[in-house]
Each structure stands twice: as C-alpha cells, then as structure tokens.
C-alpha cells in the first residue's frame, strides 16, 4: 500500500484513479509520494520514505529540486495540462484591456437607472477601445503555453513574433510557421504592442523583465505576465507606468505595490484554474505517479530521464545514481554476484543524474535485502527500488 499525501485542491478526476487497494490517500504523515499544486515546499525536509513529488501543473519552482536530487526523489510536472486555460485567460485579459471593459463594466453597474441609455450613449467615447487585429504580439517562451498563445494571436489577425533560443524540437513543431522568429530579444521588445512571457521561474529568469527591457518597449505597450511573479520586476513596472513609459500591465500574480491602479489588472493566479485544466492536470499527475510507483517508469519527470517500458518480467530493480562512468559495470557485477540473470537493462541520464532499470525473471527473494544493500553500497548509488510485477 502506497501512502499518498496531497496539498492544495487536486481534482477528483485524477484522485479517483488512486485505487484504494493500492493507494491510501492522506492517511499517514509518512508519505511515499506527494501530489501538489502551488504549495511552497521549498523549506520542507522530505523523509527517506518519499519517492516521488508530482506537480499537478506546469511550474515546479515551489519544489526543492536540489534536495530531491540528493535523495533520489523523482519530481514530475504535467506539461501542457493547463496550457489551454492559460492561453484563453491571456486573450480574455488582453481583450479586457484593449476594449476598456473594466471601466465600462463599472460604469454600467454605477449607472443603472431610468436614463441609463442616455448616459450610455453620451459615455461611449470614454470606453472606445482598440482592436487586436494588426497589432504586434511578442511572445517570450514558446513551450506548451507560449506556442498556443502565439498561434491564437495569428488567428486574431495579429502580427506575432516569438523568442525562445532553447526551444525544444517538439515544441517548435507546434508553432505556426507564420509566427516570426525574433533574431534577438531587443528586436522583439522594440516592435511589440503586447508582450507576453511564458517561461519558467528559475535563477536565470529572475526579473527577466526589468527596467532595461521595459525601456526598450514602445510607450504604448502592454506587458502580460501569466508565468510567475518573480519573472517580472514589479518595482520596475511600477516606475515605468508612473513615468508613462508603459501603458498597461496585466498579471496573474497579486502584489501589494501594484494593487488599485487603473493601469494594472491582476487576476489571483487563475491561469490554470478551469475545471478542464484541473481535471487534466490531476489525471496526468496521478497516471504518471502510478506508472512510477507500480512500474518504475518515468513520464514527464523534471529531474530524471524519460523511461517508459512495458513491465514484461517478474521483477524490476530501479536505481537512481550519479551520471558517471562505470556505474553499469558495477551494477551488473552485483547482479552477477547474486547469480541473477538480467533479462533487460535500460539506462538513461539527465544532467547529473541517471536511472537504470534492470528487469529479471528469476530473483532470490530470500536475499532481497542483502542484494539491495549491496546495490546501495555502490558509492554513486542514490536510491534503489525493487518492484514486483503488479
Ligand atoms: N498562471 C498560471 O496559472 C500558469 C499556468 C501554467 C503555466 N504557468 C507558468 O508558465 C510557465 C511556462 O509554462 P509552459 O508549460 O509553457 O512551460 P514549457 O516548459 O513548456 O515552456 C517554457 C519555454 O520557455 C523557454 N524559455 C526558458 N527560459 C527562457 C528565456 N530566458 N527566454 C526565452 N525562452 C525561455 C523554454 O525554452 C521553453 O520552450 C511555467 O513554468 C509556469 O511557471 C503559469
Ligand atoms: O504552473 C502552473 O501550472 C500554474 O501556475 C497553475 O498553478 P495552480 O495549479 O496552483 O493553479
């Protein structure tokens, strides 16, 4: 029985797939695995029992990856699971801004009365908007979210420029060929009317949009941040807005300093908060977790390599280890020492870590603990698991 702990509201559409004969949900503090959304676990010290942490969503900057790597904990996210929801919110908010919808709605609320139609006609000029068609949309980051945003921009008749120097080849296939590739970031910044950022928050991307980049924008530009608060320097935005060097800021991340301004619209981190996105992300999270706990497969892990093989033998031994030479030799020789014949061996690496999955049919179960101890004693082994065919 695997103990699963959840944080935040995880959709039942996913959780119901954790069959009670194999998984106990929130019944013990000694969790084998954690499923979460935005809960900040950066200061959490995980017990040696925790084998996996699954982010039902895209951004995993709330999970301490260094600690996970040290302890051989597999960390997963659910890429693309909520991307459509973010794309739709970006365009809703762009429309709200372009068409002066917020002050217009306030006007209607405040002027409900007999002569409302008269006042409405007289006030129309105050709420005259602009169209998105023929405006230039700059998209930084063309992954799961950014590619959808860029393509929808084209459908709106916008001129779309994209920037993503390390785009994944799979992601590049998703981007419409009519999206222009910015040769450098400054050419994108100088030309766009709307700038939207869809990159992960990490050390490199802290305050990615700050004073110097804001200064390159047109004074009439609108900046949109539906990625993470730390990616945009709010103080620099505030200054640019005050000095009329920026027209509008749309963000999904509330901040005290930006609150209450007519040139700022902030949603309370709602990008992934649709029923559909929450269901999809939770289902992906649970399915990936089950594959890992029951079969040792790694699907959408952010710190370990992808490996997804059918479990066709009686047993599997999985080893998380440092990505260094001669690990396979050392691992195989321990199998040899215990006279265990290897039916299949898969080994993949990602950065400094590697994952080896060894499949066997005949295994001396009486010697299991001694065998796992020998594997664990290899200096660069981080974590071993023994799995029986489910
Ligand atoms: N507001 C929300 O509710 C919400 C929902 C989903 C995702 N997000 C945020 O959006 C981010 C992106 O999500 P995704 O699913 O598209 O991720 P993704 O990994 O599919 O794509 C991110 C892209 O950004 C690119 N990139 C990284 N650093 C860059 C840089 N400095 N300049 C240009 N490109 C850069 C990468 O090459 C990659 O193609 C997530 O990390 C998350 O923080 C927010
Ligand atoms: O990174 C994400 O997936 C989004 O920011 C959504 O976060 P949430 O699951 O906490 O709503």
Secondary-structure topology with pairs:
Layout: E1 2-6, H1 12-15, E2 23-25, E3 33-36, E4 52-55, H2 65-71, E5 74-76, H3 83-98, H4 101-110, H5 116-123, E6 136-140, H6 144-155, E7 159-163, H7 169-174, E8 180-181, H8 185-191, E9 194-197, H9 211-216, E10 222-225, H10 234-242, E11 248-251, E12 264-266, H11 275-295, E13 315-322, H12 327-337, E14 344-350, E15 353-360, H13 368-376, E16 381-388
Parallel strand pairs: 1-2, 1-3, 3-4, 4-5, 6-7, 6-9, 7-8, 9-10, 10-11, 11-12
Antiparallel strand pairs: 13-15, 13-16, 14-15
This protein binds nicotinamide-adenine-dinucleotide and 3-phosphoglyceric acid.
Nicotinamide-adenine-dinucleotide (NAD) is lined by residues 58-59, 79, 82-83, 86, 140-146, 163-164, 166-168, 171, 198-201, 205, 208, 226-228, 252, 269, 271-272.
Write structural notes for this entry.
This is D-3-phosphoglycerate dehydrogenase. The longest helix is centred in the last third of the chain and has 21 residues, at 275-295. The chain has 13 helices and 16 strands. Helices cover 32% and strands 20% of the residues. The chain folds into 3 domains: 1-82 and 274-304, NAD(P)-binding Rossmann-like Domain (Rossmann fold), CATH 3.40.50.720; 83-97 and 131-266, Rossmann fold (3-Layer(aba) Sandwich); 305-390, ACT domain (Alpha-Beta Plaits). A 7-stranded parallel β-sheet has the order 8-7-6-9-10-11-12, sandwiched between helices. A 5-stranded parallel β-sheet has the order 2-1-3-4-5, with helices on both faces. Strands 14-15-13-16 form a 4-stranded antiparallel β-sheet, with helices on both faces. The mean pLDDT is 96. Bound molecules: nicotinamide-adenine-dinucleotide and 3-phosphoglyceric acid. The site of nicotinamide-adenine-dinucleotide (NAD) has 32 residues, from helix 3 and helix 6.
């Amino acid at each position: 029985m695997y103990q699963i702990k959840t944080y935040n509201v995880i959709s039942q559409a996913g959780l119901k797939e954790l069959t009670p004969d194999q998984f106990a949900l929130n019944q013990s503090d000694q969790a084998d695995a954690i499923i979460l959304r935005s809960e900040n676990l950066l200061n959490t010290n995980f017990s040696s029992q925790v084998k996996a942490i699954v982010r039902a969503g895209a951004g995993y900057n709330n999970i301490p990856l260094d600690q996970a790597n040290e302890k051989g904990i597999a960390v997963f996210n659910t890429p693309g699971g909520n991307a459509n929801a973010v794309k739709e919110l970006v365009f809703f908010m762009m429309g709200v801004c372009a068409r002066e919808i917020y002050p217009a709605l306030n006007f209607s609320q405040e002027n409900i009365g007999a002569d409302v139609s008269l006042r409405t006609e007289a006030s129309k000029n105050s709420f005259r908007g602009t169209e998105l068609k023929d405006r230039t949309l700059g998209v930084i980051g063309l992954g799961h979210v950014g590619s959808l945003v860029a393509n929808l921009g084209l459908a709106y008749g916008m001129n779309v420029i994209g920037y993503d120097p390390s785009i994944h080849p799979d992601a590049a296939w998703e981007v419409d060929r009519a999206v222009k590739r910015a040769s450098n970031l400054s050419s994108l910044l100088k030309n766009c009317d709307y700038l939207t950022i869809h990159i992960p928050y990490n050390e490199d991307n802290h305050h990615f949009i700050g004073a110097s980049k804001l200064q390159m924008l047109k004074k009439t530009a609108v900046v949109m941040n539906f990625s993470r608060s730390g990616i945009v320097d709010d103080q620099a935005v505030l200054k640019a807005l005050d000095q009329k060097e920026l027209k509008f800021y749309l963000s999904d991340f509330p901040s005290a300093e930006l609150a209450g301004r007519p040139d700022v619209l902030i949603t309370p981190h709602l990008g992934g908060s649709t029923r559909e996105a929450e269901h999809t992300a939770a289902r992906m999270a649970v399915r990936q977790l089950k594959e890992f706990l029951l079969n040792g497969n790694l699907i959408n892990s952010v710190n370990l390599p992808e490996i997804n093989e059918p479990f066709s033998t009686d047993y599997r031994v999985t080893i998380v280890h440092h990505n260094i030479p001669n690990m396979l030799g050392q691992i195989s020789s321990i199998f040899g020492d215990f006279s265990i014949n290897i039916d299949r061996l898969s080994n993949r690496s990602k950065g400094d870590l590697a994952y080896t999955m060894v499949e066997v049919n005949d295994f001396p179960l009486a010697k299991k603990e001694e065998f796992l101890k020998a594997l664990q004693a290899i200096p660069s082994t981080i974590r071993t698991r023994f799995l029986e065919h489910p």
